[in-house]
Amino acid sequence: MSIKEQTQQLKNRLDKCKHKLEAARSRADDDMISKFTNEIDELKIQLKSLQGKQDYNLNKERKKLLDMPFSREITKSEQADIGKLKKSVKGMVIVHPMTKLGKLLHLDVMTGFAPKKF
For a surface tag, which of 20, 37, 50, 81 has the fewest beta carbons within 10 Å of its beta carbon? Predict the structure, then answer.
């Protein structure tokens, strides 16, 4: 299971627990309140851990791209036939500015990173 799927599952469980906690508070059921507060705390800890892992993986990918010797903006004509461009340059990675990685790299346009000039 991917980090994204795990995060979504934890968020769903957290949401359910919050709703159940509100119901328990309206009934003034102290046992259930303590149970759900503990579970909410555990879920929040697990979420932070997954987000830290995701940040670590993104930073690792960012460093790998920045270490590549060549990068340049992808022109509109190249974007139209991106498959041909990828086949012509081995090991090329294209990053869109709206993705998490693109935002982390502070990109304004679609950029290609490659081990050799293209």
Answer: 81
Q: What is the 3-state secondary structure (H, E, C) of the chain?
A: CCHHHHHHHHHHHHHHHHHHHHHHHHHCCHHHHHHHHHHHHHHHHHHHHHHHHHHHHHHHHHHHHHCCCEEEECCHHHHHCHHHHHHHCCCCEEECCCCHHHHHCCCCCCEEEECCCC
